[in-house]
Structure formats: structure tokens, C-alpha cells
Amino acid sequence: MKLHEHAPLELNTITAYGTGFIEVNARRHQGAVLVMPGTPPSPWAVRSLDDIDEGLIGALLEFGPELVLIGTGARQQFLHPRLLAPLTNARVGHETMTTDSACRTYNILMAEGRQVLAALLPIAD
Asked: Where are any strands of DSSP class E within 1-125?
């Protein structure tokens, strides 16, 4: 689904998403990706929710987010609170939702000037 025709170049806008990809500023990224407004998108070493551990979640704090959105693919799936403990203990807000919802929510929060980090699993076949 295409979200934006033109994206501001100084901020990372999610411009589309689909099966197996997330598009940021009209540049397609295959697989899981981390997106923040002023930081270049980077691959996230996750293929499925089963790959996520406390270390991977804790590493998200290095980006300095005030809020983390975790996109779980086509279905909303919740992570065990133990896995989210690094964010909770650091008092960083977090939400888990479908990837399409996370993409739309990221764009809204980014446009509001929030330091939001989207950790997105692609939508599977």
C-alpha cells in the first residue's frame, strides 16, 4: 500500500509497505527494518517474532527513542513482558501492533516531531 506520494527528505517517512518490504522515502527495504525520523533506516536482524530477545529490544534504546512501535507482520502478536522489560525499565513507551498499523502510526508521530522508532517485521506471504 502506498502511503505518501512525496516524502520530506530530511525526515524518514514510510511511503509504502507490502509483502516482504517496507518503503522509506521511496526506497524499498526487504525484510525487517528499523526506522526513525532523522536516522538512516537500518536492517533489523529479525526474521520472526521468535528471533526477538531482550538483547535485541535493549539495543533499540541506543537510538534514544521516546516511543517504540513494534510491527508484528500481518497479525497482531504480543511479546512477552520479559522481552519488553528493557523498554519498560528505561521508561520508554512501546506499542505492539500489525506492521501496517505501525507504519501509519509512525508517520503520524514522526510528523508531530516525536522521536519514534519503528521496529518493523515485513508482512509475510
From this structure: 14-18, 21-24, 27-30, 33-36, 39-43, 67-72, 93-97, 116-121
